[in-house]
Design goal:
heterodimer, A: alpha+beta, Methane Monooxygenase Hydroxylase, Chain G, domain 1, 5-stranded antiparallel β-sheet, 18 helices, B: alpha+beta, Ubiquitin-like (UB roll), Fumarate Reductase Iron-sulfur Protein, Chain B, domain 2, 2 domains, two-stranded antiparallel ribbon, about 15% strand, elongated
Amino acid sequence: MKLNSNIPDGPLDTKWTNYRSKMNLVAPNNKRRIDIIVVGTGLAGASAAATLGELGYNVKAFTFHDSPRRAHSIAAQGGINAAKNYQNDGDSVYRLFYDTIKGGDYRSREANVHRLAEASRNIIDQCVAQGVPFAREYGGLLANRSFGGVQVSRTFYARGQTGQQLLLGAYQALSRQISVGNVEMYNRHEMLDLVKVDGKARGIIARNLLTGKLERFAAHCVVLATGGYGNVFYLSTNAMGSNVTAAWRAVRRGALMANPCFTQIHPTCIPVSGEYQSKLTLMSESLRNDGRVWVPKKKEDVMAIREGRKTGNDIPEGDRDYYLERRYPAFGNLVPRDVASRAAKVACDEGHGVNQTGLAVFLDFADAIQRYGKSEAISKGMSNADKATITKLGTAVVEAKYGNLFEMYEKITGENPYVLPMKIYPAVHYTMGGVWVDYNLETNVPGLFCLGEANFSDHGSNRLGASALMQGLADGYFVIPYTIGQFLSKEIRTPKISNETPEFIAAEKETQERLNKLLNIKGDKSVEEFHRRLGKIMWEYCGMARNAEGLKKGRQLIRELRKEFWSDVFVPGSTDEFNPELEKAARVADFMELGEVMIVDALTREESCGGHFREEYTQDGEAMRRDDEFTFVSAWEWDENEPILHKEELIFENVELKTRSYK
Amino acid sequence: MSDMNLTLKVWRQKNNNDSGRFESYQVAANEHMSFLEMLDVLNQTLIEKKEEPVAFEHDCREGICGACSMVINGRPHGPQGGTTTCQLHMRHFKSGDTITIEPWRAKAFPVIKDLVVDRSSFDRIIQAGGYISVNTGQAQDGNAIPIEKDLALQAFDAATCIGCGACVAACPNASAMLFTSAKVSHLGLLPQGEVEHSKRVQSMVKQMDEEGFGMCSNTGACEVECPKEISITNIARMNRTYMGSVFGSDKTV
């Protein structure tokens, strides 16, 4: 299979503009006759469904949640990047493009990333117009903060709830289109298969989660915006329901899975506390603007902290190792996520971890509180303020910036982070890999599009902070509404697609049989147990550091687990009712297949880049990329026995490939 | 890490046609677990015994998606103020406690199964007007309209509503005034949303009434139980606009 990225010709900075000007359009009278299915209602899905509805297409939107507003985009905390240069600090479209390419360790497409950087500016305008209450300065203009891997301040935010506010904006736009009948909303419907007719994506099989009945939906094309697959690790910052099923079912129908091993381990999460744990909670990267990461230098201090005889506050300044500031003076605590995570792992592997499990480092706000406190005191004319006053004033500033995060931390851990330094550890957070798409966001299956975290296109092997929200909304508001026309302009003579054709009937039957099979195993182990075991295998052998031997072992273990699952899982209830255990079982079954492809991908990528760190390929303790051999996208075709690799060469015409340095 | 032994009285209801009943279970927990993780433990033991697990809604487990919805010992989201069920931890209970767990109870939130209710009425209230009518591409520059910082913060505070429905569950009249007024305030306080403000208020209130939510009688329970601490002053603000727009203008919906 020859993969064509369909990147338009011409200079980088005018590609998208020129392409848009010459693109095929669908006339308004034809739009009314065309049906589009959008699966997923997160930032990408909701913005796409709303915008396509506004354009006049007939949209059917699907979510497995009880409401489109619950999609996991809602939990994104820190912010959204945009090359507005409101701070006059030298930002530009090119710089955002460059930072993203470099941050992604040169494993993403130049043309896609440049388009993303261009669209970023429109996103902020659009969201403000929708009423998204971004943080503002006293002058009433929009405020910014910094995120990892960049040296400008371009992140727009709404306290620690930016994802919520952006999603509500998209949800409201979607609600408006539902109210005027342009979008038909199907809540509590989970896509369980993709239906192809004559090679084109023409519909889906969805299970009505309330009645358990399978339903057939037909359309001229299908758009997937179903999020990432971080829950393959069981413990992650993803929501409990986040899953790969819709995307994976598309892969089973011929779509390709690109760079699946590129997973992001986020450096600042609340550490694991016990076996019963169901998920991990992120502490936004924005905290690294003000928090300093450190571990005690002396092992006796480490032991004293672990045994509860000392706290972080008892360790004198000279006995602390601010290891990020020491190792990466240029970026300090704001190095990109992959770098920060590995550094935390190194500190803990060397025995400096500061909780009982030995897997935690400090994120300390004491300095920030003093700094802000002094500045507040001066601005209030208090030249001789005492330490308690300064601390009080500084605490108030920190609270205004990160209040909800600190509160969440305290609720979960029972410790007060204004007084004691936070304890954090890396956790699985985001997946850069995803369904392969071309420049139009169309997969190799004609008529099947994929947006947001579910596709692979923009973040290479490491995503920069505050770029996921940007990509989801760029794809949904400003890319797909145009590029979908490239496909649909050829479909204006295609009559309404019927859901009664043999393809639909057969797909429904296959899905029903699969569900029946899950219920009829009637084994002895719960779905949860299999998911937990899968997660442990993935974390151990395909997590923060990987090597060939471990990956081979991991693959073997997953195969055995899969076999055991299909002979010993117990799923209660029946298929024709509301049955959350059955939903979970079908998702875990798909995760197990995906997990194996991730491992195969990690094994064949014999280099270290971004989130993919192969212990065999390092230089001076840092990741070693091998551009001569691995400057390509690995797109995997599913095969029960041996997944098949297809390569898309990455061509860099504008950026020179360099060793990434944040020193 | 201390172990706790708890007795749970959980509302079990097969579906909307079933009348439902409380059933008692014993569960072993520890103080570091979240409330939902404690229920996970219960469900694991039920599954091991080949019994039906308790159905409950949950997703992000970070207190932001608004999915979790249960009345714990008579209080929506349990005893800790400003906290969703998923963020409630077992350290707020002690060994030997009996904990009663029920679904939201309101006519406009019919029970689907056990602790799961249908909250689509909230979506329909938003669809009635809880938005600003702007198509993609119509926006001017984000800094074109300066907005006073305090005003933006007030709008933000109202916008933090997670749509969980605890306000309705807490209200003796099952009123959705706090939910509706939070959206009305969020959009109405901002200059972008002011244009449609009075029409929005009327449409959303009309839909709220049609869904079967009760009237507000200023009990204030909604504000107390709201996990995002949305202020009841939003209701006052909505009432002022509603009165003004119904009686003081010729614009009615």
